[in-house]
């Protein structure tokens, strides 16, 4: 026997007339439907329409409320940025830039540094370990180190930089970083304890006596990440602390300069010799940047056996 296929036509608005017609198909599915069933269907549909209207009103109300919350949030964000800009300006001028919520405060940053990545790759034990950062400046890198290390100690020669570092520490709620004002030319570093690794960036080439400083670093940690500039062999070289290098004039009034009137840059070969004579038995060149615009630069990872 050939089956009877019903022909269905549905109005997209689902009004009562077409819906009732839908139930009265040629196949006879709705032809003998009892009137009380039809009445129940109509009542249910009417109630559903009322529920849909209530839902639409509720959705409209929620959208309105959401718009109000977004406007409030935007206003609070504008106020936050105003307060941040004021706080940074009052503590300026800054040497470093800090990015917060897509905006840079302090000094505009010019590039992204690979040094943090290189440091933790060279010394995995520094993660969840104790890290020393001599020359911590305004604390921006210190706080980044603190995101992975158990504890970070930052040493800085200028009190105003330590004040800025403490401001950033409070701003970001960092509890595992401490800052100290000290003269790195004179401090023997022993009062801070021992460390799993030292993160030493941009400070050695500001020092008048780099040998003494590197030897002191070796006495408090077996691992040293060093980012520094060095002298070329063809420059006007001289001798200092038994090393061959170049003497550079420094301006202690310049916030990006050292505290001594001169700094001594060993040549690259002499820098390797300095590390070896300080007890480091493994010295790895991570990056060699001879054409750096401020002078030849190198990133080194050095370790010694205890």
TrEMBL record:
Protein name listed in UniProt: Uncharacterized protein
Native source species: Rubrobacter xylanophilus
């Amino acid at each position: 026997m050939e089956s009877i296929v019903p022909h269905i036509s549905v109005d997209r608005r689902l009004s009562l007339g077409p819906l009732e017609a839908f139930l009265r198909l040629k196949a006879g599915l709705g032809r003998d439907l009892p009137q009380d069933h039809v009445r129940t269907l109509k009542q249910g549909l009417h109630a559903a329409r009322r529920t849909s209207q209530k839902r639409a009103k509720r959705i409209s109300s929620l959208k309105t409320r959401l718009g109000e919350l977004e406007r409030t949030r935007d206003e609070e964000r504008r106020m936050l940025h105003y307060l941040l800009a004021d706080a940074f300006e009052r503590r300026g001028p800054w040497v470093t830039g800090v990015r917060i919520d897509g905006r840079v405060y302090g000094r505009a940053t010019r590039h992204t540094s690979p040094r943090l990545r290189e440091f933790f790759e060279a010394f995995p034990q520094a993660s969840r370990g104790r890290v020393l950062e001599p020359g911590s400046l305004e604390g921006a890198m210190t706080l980044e180190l603190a995101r992975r290390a158990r504890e970070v100690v930052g040493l800085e020669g200028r009190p105003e930089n330590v004040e800025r570092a403490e401001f950033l520490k409070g701003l970001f709620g960092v509890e595992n970083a401490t800052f100290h004002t000290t003269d790195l030319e004179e401090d023997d570093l022993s009062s801070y304890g021992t460390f799993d690794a030292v993160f030493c960036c941009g400070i050695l080439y500001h020092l008048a006596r780099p040998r003494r400083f590197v030897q002191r670093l070796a006495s408090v940690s077996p691992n040293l990440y060093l980012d520094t500039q060095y002298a070329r062999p063809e420059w006007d070289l001289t001798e200092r602390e038994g090393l061959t290098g170049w003497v550079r004039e420094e301006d202690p009034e310049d916030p990006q300069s050292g505290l001594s009137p001169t700094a001594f840059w060993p040549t690259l070969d002499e820098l390797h010799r300095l590390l070896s004579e300080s007890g480091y038995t493994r010295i790895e060149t991570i990056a060699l940047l001879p054409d750096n615009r401020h002078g030849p630069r190198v990133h080194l990872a050095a370790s010694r056996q205890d």
